[in-house]
């Protein structure tokens, strides 16, 4: 009988997953075998006759579930990147099995007794900083998992974990399925007025793929609906696609096939109940205990400070937009589906360029190559394409990453760039194996970035918007954080840091995208090869703070939604839309005209950002402060880059992020750095 490829030691470079051999039928047998192996390893720790110490208990537990982590890591990554009904059906089986095993471990009294014994003697063990962090994290994870509770509460926690294991995948499935269920077929070419040629070609190609010859197809994939909202002259069609996007996974009566209302209410109820069992006032209190912010009150104060700056600026932005629209034949009642359209036209008037002016200079292959050169200039890395790796789709590319300083191998990088049916929306970095101890050796990581960028057509290659270029640099910032990790233990590697620190290494990279020195690495016209004109770059830089009040207030509203759901007892909430309306009444510019954001808010209900969405703005303060140092010393100043690499990127979660940042910057972050960059500092008083 052939071995299960999920359980074999991979023969591919860096032991990367053999995607070409993995079938859906392999997941369940592999999971069951991996759980059995992990249970045996845990039993060996518990039955060890030697007194508990750091190696025979803490490190042994760290590596006890290696195979299980490998199997579930591949599965859940493929669930997002590939999707489909079969994988989602498997998730409903795999989730409870994994959750049950995790509960067995964290609620095991004998195992916790050994961990507690080591933790109580930690001061006498001579541990390194990283070892102490691993010990503290392990002990804290068990306590936060219910190790100190009585039998009845432990069993309830176990039941909650079981339920939660399927709710988040179900939430994400509904978001994806509801988006895929929508298409807007245009038959009259006149309805395409205002759209750039590339968007029209992409829509024609999308229609042809679905058998709609001679028509144009628009979907809720961002490369399709984004340009439509930005450029389409026909207002009623902009409204149609905006309402469809804003109503994903929601129906007014809660009875729609993909409605997320019941899922959402169950998720917040279970999270709150779990927090209460563990002695916390709310889910937000539970989560923030392990964040830089530490307390919900700190987050609320932070959001209020941002609101004080962004709301007046947003109201001014909106009035400016309304006035401009009226003067240019627009509606007297500006709506959300008009904002992108008139913002683009106002930007063209104020700065004498269109967002589409950049697209011919941003050919995906060239941008990726330039992005790699950028990281080579910063951190002396080399990205080499490789066909030695199996991939999960023909569009996926694989790269070996090397350190040019000593020609050492850094890790494996996959890049998956285009939308397709089944694939989750958005963009993210993930890991198939973190750097660190694996099968007895310190191994290099296997990292992936997954995006949904503009697809190529028969007429032209994939040409990115400037926003998509920023997204690539953002996700590559996460990827390099994972790739450059140099720790011992995988649970502390790379992006395994506090969630309100994790966006620093990604968001800081976006700054280089508007710099001529960086753009000259890759921005060349896809037909002529002409470098992007300096004048166009200057126009881009001049427009960087355009409408930043509205954009900032939008982020504040999302953080407010998150804290509203998770900062209180949700038992009295029955109407998702009404609750959201009340929560963000003071941080929104329009009444709700479609579904509530909450119904498709995957970051907080199907991702890791519950009680943590504020972290995007929190990290933005850090990265604005950090980038000021690069501006001061030079965009590619090697000593600064090396300090940033060595003090932050390589350290992962091996020390508290506040310590890492101080070591790099020489001080705490200046809280005014972000608003100073956005020209809003004097409005935050």
Strands side by side in the biggest sheet: 3-4-5-9-6
Q: Please state the structural category.
A: alpha+beta
Span from first to last CA? 71 Å
Low-confidence stretches: none
Q: What name is given to the CATH topology of the largest domain?
A: Neurolysin, domain 3
What is the count of structural domains? 4
Level of helix content? Answer: 40-55%
- Give the oligomeric state: single chain
What is the radius of gyration?
A: 25 Å
Number of helices: 26
State the major sheet: 5 strands, mixed
CATH architecture descriptor text of the largest domain: Orthogonal Bundle
Number of strands: 9
Mean pLDDT: 96
Q: For this structure, what is the CATH class of the largest domain?
A: Mainly Alpha
General form: globular
Give the DSSP E fraction (strand runs of 2 or more residues): 5-15%
Please name the defining characteristics of this protein.
alpha+beta; Neurolysin, domain 3; five-stranded mixed sheet; 6% strand
How would you explain this protein's 3D organization?
It is a single chain. The protein is globular, with a radius of gyration of 25 Å. The N and C termini lie far apart (71 Å). It has helices spanning 24-46, 54-62, 66-81, 85-106, 109-120, 129-144, 151-180, 197-209, 222-231, 235-246, 261-277, 283-288, 296-327, 336-351, 364-379, 466-483, 504-507, 516-519, 534-542, 548-566, 576-583, 602-605, 615-633, 638-649, 657-665, 673-677, and strands spanning 184-186, 216-218, 381-385, 397-403, 408-416, 428-433, 436-438, 441-443, 446-450. The strands form three sheets. A five-stranded mixed sheet has the order 3-4-5-9-6. The longest helix is centred in the middle third of the chain and has 32 residues, at 296-327. The chain folds into four domains: 13-106 and 108-144, Glutathione S-transferase Yfyf (Class Pi), Chain A, domain 2; 182-246, no CATH class; 261-353 and 548-613, Neurolysin, domain 3, CATH 1.10.1370; 360-542 and 616-683, Neurolysin, domain 3 (Orthogonal Bundle), CATH 1.10.1370. It is built from 26 helices and nine strands. Helices cover 53% and strands 6% of the residues. A hairpin with a 2-residue loop joins strand 7 (436-438) and strand 8. By secondary structure, the protein is an alpha+beta fold.
């Amino acid at each position: 009988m052939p071995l299960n490829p999920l359980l074999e030691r991979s023969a591919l470079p860096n032991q990367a997953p053999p995607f070409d051999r993995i079938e859906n039928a392999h997941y369940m047998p592999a999971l069951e075998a991996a759980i059995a192996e992990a249970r045996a390893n845990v039993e060996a720790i518990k039955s060890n006759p030697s007194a508990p110490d750091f190696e025979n208990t803490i490190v042994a537990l760290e590596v006890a579930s290696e195979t299980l982590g490998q199997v579930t890591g591949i599965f859940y990554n493929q669930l997002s990147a590939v999707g489909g009904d079969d994988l989602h059906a498997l998730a409903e089986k795999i989730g409870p099995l994994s959750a049950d095993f995790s509960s067995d471990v964290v609620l095991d009294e004998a195992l916790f007794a050994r961990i507690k014994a080591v933790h109580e003697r930690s001061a006498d063990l001579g541990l390194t900083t990283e070892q102490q962090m691993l010990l503290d994290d392990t002990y804290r994870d068990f306590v936060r998992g219910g190790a100190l509770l009585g039998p009845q509460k432990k069993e309830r926690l176990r039941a909650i974990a079981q339920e939660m294991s399927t709710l988040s995948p179900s939430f994400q499935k509904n978001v994806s399925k509801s988006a895929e269920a929508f298409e807007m077929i245009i038959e009259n070419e006149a309805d395409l007025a205002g759209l750039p040629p590339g968007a029209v070609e992409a829509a024609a190609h999308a229609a042809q793929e679905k058998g709609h010859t001679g028509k144009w197809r628009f979907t809720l994939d961002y490369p399709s609906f984004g340009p439509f909202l930005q450029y389409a002259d026909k207002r009623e069609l902009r409204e149609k696609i905006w309402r469809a996007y804003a109503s994903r996974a929601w129906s007014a009566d809660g009875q729609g096939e993909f409605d997320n209302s019941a899922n959402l209410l169950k998720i917040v109820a279970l999270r709150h109940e779990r927090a209460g069992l563990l002695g916390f006032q709310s889910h937000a209190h539970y989560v923030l205990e392990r964040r830089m912010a530490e307390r919900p009150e700190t987050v609320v104060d932070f959001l209020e400070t941002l609101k004080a700056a962004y709301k007046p600026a947003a109201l001014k932005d909106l009035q400016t937009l309304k006035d401009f629209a009226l003067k240019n034949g627009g509606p007297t009642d500006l709506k959300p589906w008009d904002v992108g359209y008139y913002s683009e036209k106002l930007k063209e008037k104020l700065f004498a360029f269109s967002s589409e002016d950049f697209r011919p200079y941003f050919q995906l292959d060239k941008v990726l190559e330039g992005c790699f050169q950028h990281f080579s200039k910063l951190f002396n890395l080399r990205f080499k394409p490789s066909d030695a790796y199996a991939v999960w789709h023909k569009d996926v590319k694989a790269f070996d990453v090397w350190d040019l300083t000593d020609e050492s191998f850094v890790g494996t990088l996959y890049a998956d760039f285009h939308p397709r049916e089944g694939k989750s929306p958005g963009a993210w970095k993930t890991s198939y194996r973190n750097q660190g101890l694996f099968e007895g050796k310190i191994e290099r990581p296997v990292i992936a970035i997954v995006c949904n960028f503009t697809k190529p057509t028969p007429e032209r290659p994939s040409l990115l918007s400037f926003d998509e270029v920023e997204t690539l640099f953002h996700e590559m910032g996460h990827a390099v954080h994972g790739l450059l990790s140099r720790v011992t233990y995988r649970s502390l590697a790379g992006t395994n840091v506090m969630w309100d620190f994790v966006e620093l290494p990604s968001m800081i990279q976006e700054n280089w995208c508007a710099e001529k020195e960086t753009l000259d690495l890759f921005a060349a016209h896809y037909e002529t090869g002409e470098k992007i004109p300096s004048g166009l770059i200057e126009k881009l830089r001049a427009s960087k703070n355009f409408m930043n009040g509205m954009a900032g207030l939008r982020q504040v509203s999302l953080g407010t939604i998150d804290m509203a759901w998770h900062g209180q007892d949700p038992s009295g909430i029955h109407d998702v839309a009404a609750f959201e309306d009340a929560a963000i009444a003071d941080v929104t510019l329009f009444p709700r005209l479609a579904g509530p954001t909450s119904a498709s808010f995957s970051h907080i209900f199907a991702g890791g950002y519950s009680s943590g969405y504020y972290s995007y703005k929190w990290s933005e303060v850090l990265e604005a402060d950090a980038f000021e140092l690069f501006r001061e010393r030079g965009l590619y100043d090697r000593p600064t880059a090396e300090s940033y690499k060595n003090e932050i990127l390589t350290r992962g979660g091996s020390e508290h992020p506040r310590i890492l940042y101080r070591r790099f910057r020489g001080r705490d972050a200046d809280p005014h750095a972000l608003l100073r960059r956005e020209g809003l500092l004097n409005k935050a008083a």
